[in-house]
Amino acid sequence: xxxxxxxxxxxxxxxxxxxxxxxxxxxxxxxxxxxxxxxxxxxxxxxxxxxxxxxxxxxxxxxxxxxxxxxxxxxxxxxxxxxxxxxxxxxxxxxxxxxxxxxxxxxxxxxxxxxxxxxxxxxxxxxxxxxxxxxxxxxxxxxxxxxxxxxxxxxxxxxxxxxxxxxx
Length: 168
Ligand SMILES: CC(C)(COP(=O)(O)OP(=O)(O)OC[C@H]1O[C@@H](n2cnc3c(N)ncnc32)[C@H](O)[C@@H]1OP(=O)(O)O)[C@@H](O)C(=O)NCCC(=O)NCCS
Description:
Layout: E1 7-11, H1 17-30, H2 42-51, E2 57-63, E3 66-75, E4 86-93, H3 102-116, E5 121-127, H4 131-139, E6 143-154, E7 157-167
Parallel strand pairs: 4-5
Antiparallel strand pairs: 1-2, 2-3, 3-4, 5-7, 6-7
């Protein structure tokens, strides 16, 4: 893809559902960078965006009116107040748009949002073979917590997953 300037980072709205699903589905189709293993429909993505509460956001990176990247900040868990200080993060970019600093731009907005919401730490999990994502998150200040063995099954194969965290 041509140089992605100007790039806009903004909150997703329901009207973005189709393009957000397209980004997620491009990563899912690669079959090795996310634990999601079936494509999202536009309706599922609409429902997800609609369901986001006060302490959750989906940021989108937009170039030439096309959504090329997505980053989600959400509560790690909703079942107990004791872990309400933990944000869970996920990032997905179109393959041709990686390695150009877009993930970092998304993180700047997501970090500001997480601080505004009062989160104290962020948690992510990355498939152990996903070298680009590991470098990306380490460059953002995330440190490895540990490896969960055979944590994710994709197409009948079990993969290790690395959990990482950083203070907000
Ligand atoms: C992982 C991902 C989100 C990173 O986003 P990105 O926009 O490609 O990353 P950036 O360009 O912002 O790079 C930030 C840092 O990551 C590292 N990095 C990213 N791509 C890299 C590459 N191809 N080679 C080496 N380092 C790389 C660098 O340290 C870079 O810092 P620098 O620009 O100061 O050198 C993106 O590649 C992606 O969507 N991958 C597929 C989906 C995925 O794996 N998601 C993560 C699991 S939730």
